[in-house]
Amino acid sequence: MQGSLPIDPDADLRRSLARHRAVATGMLVGMGALLVGTYHMPPGYWTDLLQASAKAGVVGGLADWFAVTALFRHPLGLPIPHTAIVPNQKERLGRALGRFVSSHVFTEAEVRRVLGRLDLARIVQKFLADPAASKPAAAALARSLPRLVASLEDGRAKRLLVRLLPRIVSGPAGARLVARVLRAFVASGRHQEVFGLAIGQLKVLVAAREDALRTAIEARIRAEGGAVIGWLAGATVAKRILHAINAELEKVEPGDSDLRAAFAEWLGHEIERLETDPERAAAIGRVLREALAHPSVAAWLIDVWGRLRAALVADAARPDGRTVALLAGVFANAGTLLAEDPAARDRLNRTTEGVLMTLLPSAQTQLSDFIAGVVANWDAATVAEKIELRVGRDLQYVRMNGTLVGFLAGGALFALLTAMFGRVAG
């Protein structure tokens, strides 16, 4: 069926080459017919002039036909030396073509010029700012995350997590991270929630252990003041102490209590020390490192890793999952940054250009080797055909011009020599 036939991508080139080749050959045949016709014309100067011109035209056309044909095949199938040049020299041609492209086309100046005209940062910004383009990219990236996570062997990932995390948090960066977390905590008011929870738990603990605390206080009074003092005042003192503790806890619970305000002030002071005091930052780093190095904490981190991995794999597969939404949000924020910050666009362009310039020498070598390898793997007939289809049309003009120039040159030379030396007797 017609629809099942393969499409020839070079069909137009083939037709154009055949058309120009037919014209060039037709001119050569016509010149030969003119030459034969001169032998049937009445003798005379103009017949001799036309005959000399036709002879030169035929010779010029034949010479250029031979030269053009010899580039791609043996003329008339005869194995004449130094013909079929392209098929016989395809490997050298491939290497030369590869060197030319890498050294004269794919140059540093040309790459810089193209990058400057493209403005990659603006292209990236438009892509990131367009939800229709960035969301599918976020979904594709999210779908690749499970494969990336699966490529991390559990044991290696856990060992890396247990070893690397304590080192990260033990330095100044760890203290700064803690300070930022605490500042966010205070700004949201969550520190008072934690404080209230602690007070509530302390009240529950005191109520649950009130009898034990009363007994312990009475015992302490007897130990310090003797049996008589303990018998007379032990129970009363214990009751008053417990009542005072509960009363103070009740005072702390309201949101405007002095103790809560003092707690907030102390917390702000500690945050400032974490950010400005190297010794305090180092002390917090040591505490964090020791805590994370504890076997129980390490086991907890491993469990967290497993849960995060399972949750990530499950969520990344959902087009409406949080992973896709998060990545889409990151893309949108990056697009907004590039749109509003010319310096960021400039940094992105300069960084991209710097990376490409660093990779350019290696890319030039690989491009040259790639082109040489592609040409070397072609068979000789394929090489000749591909090149002839692309330059053969222009070469047919060489044949046409050879025929015409030969015709004109032959006539001019005949006229000049006749004028100088007269006609040669036949």
Automatic annotation (TrEMBL):
Keywords: Membrane, Transmembrane, Transmembrane helix. The chain crosses the membrane at residues 403-425. Pfam families: DUF445 (PF04286). The keyword Repressor does not apply. Signal peptide: none annotated. InterPro entries: DUF445. One of its GO terms (cellular component) is plasma membrane. This is DUF445 domain-containing protein. It comes from Neoroseomonas soli.
